Amino acid sequence: MAALLAGARLVLRQGLRFLPAYSTVYRVLPAPVSVRYLHNSARFLTTALPDNGTVDVESVQSRDSPKTQPDGWSLHITGSKLKKNGRISKQHLLNTLENVCAAGKPSSNQAWFLLQACGSSMPEVPLAERTEIANTIWDRLQGMGVAFNEHHYNTLLKVYLENEHKFSPTEFLANMEANQIQANQSTYELLIAAYCHEGDIEGASKILGFMKSTDLPITEDVFSSLITGHARSGDMESAKNILSVMQGAGLVPRRGAYTALLCAYAEKGDIESINQTLLSCTTTPTDKGFLKVIYSLAKSGHSQLVPSIFDHMKNCTGYIQDVIKMCLALLTQGSGDTAILLAKKFLTVQPSDFDFSSQPGSFFLRHCVHLNLPAETIKNYAHEMASSELHHSPLQFALMCALEYGKKDLALNLIRTLKEEGLPVRPHYCWPLLASSSRKNDVQGKSLLFWWL
Predict the structure, then answer these.
(1) What is the pTM of this model?
(2) Are 100 and 133 contacting, i.e. CB atoms less than 8 angstroms apart?
(3) What per-residue confidence (pLDDT) applies to 111?
């Protein structure tokens, strides 16, 4: 016991020097603090572990703000994030929902805005959870008396498609009719896409026939969906022939149709057909379209073919936020190896900076910690980041995130990894863990921590 107390005194005597990064939430005085000041807990304001739960990726910002903000302010911040980055965190969306609802019954536009953020705008959230959030928001707004129109239903349909949610298009349409909402052209196009997503050409054909009977125009989006539908039904020849059908209907196949065909080949792992299509197509997909092809390859288990797609891409100028968004989505869905390839290929290397959060690889490591990936996996990604100069202190940054999110076990494993790598283990790295163990009277946890030190 005397040895343990001596170790504790050593840790506390060193204070909080040499913090590896300046967190966006916790500001730490770099000067050493004597042990006699321990009674003043404010002197040790640091990333102490919470007792319960974890912190979402961007929830740290919300803790710095008043709990209640005017709904206009909240929507403005959310809109700014979506415009700048094309994505928001789950916690930020839920905070926005609370602020809007606290101000009274949301308007029709506010309801639409909240619903449309529940799809691909949250790449850090699993697909099923995104759909659950959308349904929760829908039910809550409906309970508050918000009058939904066809635009809200179309937005919900689009969210279902982005989240790859399985549902009955027939029941969805019946629900609209029961609520006296008239479906429009966008509704029918989205319903066709829903049928085609499951490879149900018969169901899609019924809606297509109705559109023709009511003289609704058949757009490129419909043909693109039919390409996907035929491919997923196992008929690649018919999928390819859709391009000829488009030309016969007076439509010139554009990037959307070619991207759909490339994604169909990607799901089959047919890189030869992808290359042939790119040679013969009249218009080349954008880099954003190629990102969809990469996603299809990774999702269908053909990630080894991803480097072949890089050869057809430029430098993703103007699409860096889309690259980051795709990396986050791939990580969330378990395709981290593809995500790291994408990050190394297109993210811009920046000079070393003391601000860890501004380095190109910070978002990647933060999300790895948020997903609670194994320490060994994070270690491998950290090495990739360091060798690519996407982050200059990746393991230390990952440890900071683990402490910030209250992931004690991961933090301990990362401390051990730092020691194994021959990197310095600063006393203040361990202070949050020691504080947490002290609150819980976890003698074993403190003993293990001292042993590692």
Answers:
(1) 0.80
(2) no
(3) 96
Please say if the pLDDT value at position 433 is more than 90: no
What residue has token string 């609209």? 176
For residue 210, the Cα-to-chain-centroid distance in whole angstroms is 37
Domain that holds residue 234: 166-251
Q: How many CB atoms lie within 10 A of CB 409?
A: 10
Q: What percent of the chain has pLDDT over 70?
A: 76
**Could you give the number of structural domains in the chain?**
4
Helix/strand/coil for 236? helix
The whole-angstrom distance between residue 76's C-alpha and the CA centroid of its chain comes to 21
Residue 42 clears pLDDT 50, i.e. is over it: no
Query: Quick one: CA dihedral 140, 146, 149, 155, positive or negative?
Result: negative
Assess whether 374 and 398 both reside in one domain.
yes
Q: Are 381 and 368 in contact (CB under 8 A)?
A: yes
Each residue of 249-308: pLDDT tens digit? 999 999 999 999 999 999 999 999 999 999 998 888 999 999 999 999 999 999 999 999
Q: Tokens at residue 307, please?
A: 């480097």
Question: What is d(CA 203, CA 200) in angstroms, rounded to the nearest whole number?
Answer: 6
Amino acid in position 395:
L
Residue in the block written with tokens 């391009």: 243
Round to whole Å and give the CA distance between 368 and 349: 20
| Residue corresponding to tokens 């007076």 | 250
Closest CA to 57 of 135, 122, 115: 122
Contacts for 168 with CB less than 8 Å, ≥ 6 apart: none
Question: Over the stretch 292-329, which tens digit does the pLDDT of each residue have?
Answer: 999 999 999 999 999 999 999 987 778 899 999 999 99
The verdict on residue 358 lying in a domain is yes
359 with 263, same domain: the answer is no
